Amino acid sequence: MRSLRTQHIIQYLLLVLICGLVIPLSISQLLDWNFKKFASEKLKENRNTAREYFTDLYKKNQNWSTAVKYTSEFDFYRWPIVSVQLLDKDGKLVKLYKKERIARYQMKNEKLLVYEDKLYIKNTQIGTLRFVCLPFSASPEGIFLKKFNILLFHTVASLLLLSALLAIFIAYKISKPIMAVT
After folding, report:
1. In the β-sheet with 81-88, what is the strand arrangement from edge to edge?
2. Buried b vs exposed e over 127-140: b needs ≥16 C-beta within 10 Å?
């Protein structure tokens, strides 16, 4: 049979472990999920904007000649998009739009993601947009979350260690008067 002091230590440590692990892990997962959801929605929005832009451009000219001359960055050309390839209906490259300054964010072992959106006018394919994007982990949000999770882990580990030391002290103080009576 365990002593009263040991039982107090175990109960306190279990309570601290449950609260000290469940709450931070929940916060970490919730933040991660919401950031990824936000980034995914923004990428979809940017792809839709590009699809509408190029479809309208083709409607006006009935060819890609204006797209070849166009060199400015577009409103849809945001993180995590590294490049956009405009392909004609046969899959030949019409124009490559590339953002050089994003390359500095690319991590060494990160694989680029590729999304393709077909362009249609009245059910007739006029081309394809190929988006080459960095993964979420290479985004400013992904990097922030990684740093945040490391800091959270170190904080929780420190607090659990401190709580373990406090558990011994508190169990000793609480059980001392009770043990003196018995």
Report:
1. 93-98, 81-88, 124-133, 113-121
2. bbbbbbbbebebbe
Would you say 79 and 144 are in contact if contact means Cβ atoms under 8 Å apart? no
Torsion of CA 42, 46, 48, 49, to 10 degrees: 130
pTM of the full structure: 0.71
Q: Sign of dihedral through CA atoms 67, 68, 72, 77?
A: positive
pLDDT digits (tens, 9 = 90+) for 54-64: 998 899 889 88
Distance, CA of 19 to CA of 23 (rounded, Å): 6
The DSSP code for 73 is: P
| pLDDT tens sequence across 22-65 | 888 899 999 999 989 998 999 999 899 889 989 988 998 898 88
